[in-house]
Amino acid sequence: MSTRFGSRVLHAVKPGPDHEVLRITQLGSGAGDVTMLDVECGPAILVRPDVLDDRYLLSIPLAGTGWTEVDGEQVGTRDVLLGPAQTKVSISRNGGNRALVLHFTREAIDAAAADRLGHEPGGPTRFSPAVRSDNARTAAWLELARTLAETARRGLLDDSPLGRHHLEQLLIHGLFEAQPHTFHDALERHEAASMPAVVRRAVSFCEENASEPITVSDMAKAAGTSVRALQRGFRTQLGTSPLGHLRQVRLARVHEDLRAIGQGDQPGTVTEVALRWGFPHLGRFSQLYRETYGEPPSHTLRSA
């Protein structure tokens, strides 16, 4: 308990039979930035952790009931996030309780904050302790946390350290999108100030990977920003969405290929070119092409 939860204060509120125990099972080796634990409480317990200077704890209940109090106020959600800057925490769990607990290192959270801010945060990120699963974005993040834990339970993360790192970074950076936190306004200002460069990186990524099945998330990651910030930047700077820009890049590649075919420089048909550049719906493709180049794709091929 002291090692994993920073707590030396544990009370059995209502001791049960001898076979009712507190069991903490680590899922996987715990070698990365996120340690995942399966915690089962036989008897009802009360935990008062010390100050969590070096860790963040996310509790996702699986069975049973209980409550958590932070700095004198009861948290109004079942899923709870605790961390540095929360000076007084009490955790009460009824008998038969079971929870998934994720332990994030302070170092990893600080590094993610620095990446997003563009400078060292100068102090711990304080997240809202109430994790609201009724919010779509937060619910998706919680589902990712459960998936990561289940993958660790099966031992798959230990087989792929690189894969583990990518999943952990996705979860850690997603936390800044899923939960309210103290650096929200600073991040908004930083994203606004750096957006032209961010958009340029995303545009370059589209140019270099237009033939690949890339997503908005891939573009945001390559640009070093969030999906929401990237979408805002594209609207402001280019008057379109990231996927709208990617579509225009691919249409330009189609145009180039059709002219090359028409000039005899390469073989192919309109259908083959459309499918190669990610336009499986030929009717919609023809409409987009005509709107962009003022003529049907077959005319470009013939006129070249």
UniProtKB/TrEMBL annotation:
Gene3D superfamilies listed in its UniProt record: Homeodomain-like
Family matches, as SUPFAM superfamilies: Homeodomain-like (SSF46689)
Species of provenance: Amycolatopsis minnesotensis
InterPro entries reported for this sequence: AraC-bd_2, AraC_XylS_family_regulators, Homeodomain-like_sf, HTH_AraC
Protein's recorded name: AraC family transcriptional regulator
Pfam families to which the protein is assigned, alphabetical: AraC_binding_2, HTH_18
Keywords in alphabetical order: DNA-binding, Transcription, Transcription regulation
Superkingdom of this protein's organism: Bacteria
HTH araC/xylS-type domain ranges (all copies): 200-303
